[in-house]
Amino acid sequence: MIDTDIIDFYNRGLEQERLKDARRSIEYHRTMDVLQRFLPPPPATILDVGGGPGLYALTLAALGYQVHLIDPVPLHVEQAQASSDLAEHRLASARLGDARDLSQADASADAVLLLGPLYHLTTVADRHQAWSEARRVLRPDGMVVAAGASRYYTIWEMLSKGILNVPGAEETVQQHIATGQHRNPGRDFERLWTTAYFHDPHELASEAVAAGLAVRALFAVEGPAKLLPDLADRMRDSVSREQVVAAIRRLESEPSVLGLSSHILVIADKAPAGKEER
Ligand SMILES: C[S@@+](CC[C@H](N)C(=O)[O-])C[C@H]1O[C@@H](n2cnc3c(N)ncnc32)[C@H](O)[C@@H]1O
């Protein structure tokens, strides 16, 4: 069961436009930067679990991948399917589903993307189930690319949005830092998101290991770049954008930078290096 708050939040339909916002698009450009360097070459089979309305799935399909999108929000699956129907390179499928209980067969995918589900699975047991399902459906030499939202970034976002002083904000931030748990106190979705879990970056890696995966790398997606006051302008200009992306890339795996990034990516293999299961 998905928390109704989470479904209500995504039923507002904002997800389709979210990463088109200039400032937020850094998340997309940097995630693609990492994916293009680490995914196996096309036409590998990718499961985009929690793929939302399909931005990454369709970009990867256009690059020649066989992409299956899975999401628990019917609106997202409909939006992904509608975009796929209009696209030159379509998705292999777009279906309703939950990261904790995938319908895919064992060892059927070359890569699993978890770019969203772990934000909204608030218990260790549920996240473990999602990691284990990702591992199950991977081929022996397959990999997971999973995103977590950082518990050490939210205070800066709230400060920059000028909402650290709204009632309840102080307690909210304290809770993020102490436990990673986020609950919207009054469904002010505009400013205070929905039910979520914020990771410590190293905990994200430990969760992958606990599910039997071998961590290859941990990356800051945005680094501290979302704190640049003119980030939106820089993202609108392709030369400035590449400068920002290159700067983040230089420090992408520096442990002391990871937590300041809004999102963290972990790349984990089904088999430890040199020990592919057969
Ligand atoms: C912030 S959106 C990210 C969408 C897309 N992957 C992206 O990065 O742009 C989080 C996504 O996770 C999905 N989600 C939430 N709980 C999930 C679960 N238990 N299993 C799979 N997906 C889930 C939501 O429906 C939503 O589409």
Polypeptide structure, described:
The protein is built from 14 helices and 9 strands. The protein has about 280 residues and is α/β, with parallel strands linked by helices. α3 packs across α13. The protein is globular. The model has no long low-confidence stretch (mean pLDDT about 95). It binds S-adenosylmethionine. S-adenosylmethionine (SAM) binds next to α1, α4 and α6.
Count of distinct strands: 9
Helix content: 40-55%
Strand order of the largest sheet: 3-2-1-4-5-9-8
CATH homology-level superfamily: Vaccinia Virus protein VP39
Number of domains: 1
- What gap, in angstroms, lies between the N and C termini? 35 Å
Mean pLDDT: 95
Can you tell me the residue ranges where pLDDT is under 50 for at least 5 consecutive residues?
none
Give the C-level CATH assignment.
Alpha Beta
Bound molecules: S-adenosylmethionine
List its traits.
binds S-adenosylmethionine; 7-stranded mixed β-sheet; Rossmann fold; globular; two-stranded antiparallel sheet; 278 residues; 14 helices
